[in-house]
Write a sequence for this structure.
């Protein structure tokens, strides 16, 4: 009986632990790739090798979230509708509204999550510049904010 109680308490601790410690899956998000291609590089980017360029339309429904993630390359986003709330790796909050743009830096040190805390869908157009063959986003554990 004592062992059963210990196991149940252990399970309760795991369930009660803050979810930011683990990668969180996105929800209420859809994305459509509008265009994509690969650059062989230029004089300025030759040392980086080929770069995949993708343009994507992303919609985040009210209450939706991208989940914690990072990008292996830089991206530029424009908010078409709604208000996007991003929480960054330093736990700061950034809000972008329709007509605003932002740049997301590359790398594991730039973990973030995008949320739609409003009542209308958030629609974004995002241009990704990532090393050829990489994923557009990589799931990451949250920073514990």
């Amino acid at each position: 009986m004592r062992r059963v109680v210990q196991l149940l308490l252990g399970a309760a601790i795991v369930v009660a632990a803050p979810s930011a410690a683990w990668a969180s899956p996105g929800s209420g998000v859809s994305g459509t790739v509008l265009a994509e291609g690969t650059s062989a590089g230029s004089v300025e980017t030759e040392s980086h090798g080929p770069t995949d360029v993708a343009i994507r339309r992303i919609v985040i429904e009210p209450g939706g979230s991208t989940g914690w993630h990072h990008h292996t390359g830089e991206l530029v986003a424009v908010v078409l509708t709604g208000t996007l709330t991003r929480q960054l790796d330093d736990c700061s909050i950034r809000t972008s509204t329709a007509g605003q743009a932002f740049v997301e830096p590359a790398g594991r040190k730039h973990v973030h999550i995008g949320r739609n805390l409003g009542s209308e869908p958030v629609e974004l157009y995002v241009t990704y510049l990532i090393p050829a063959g990489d994923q557009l986003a990589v799931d990451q554990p949250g920073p514990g904010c």
Notes: The chain is about 10% helix and 50% strand.
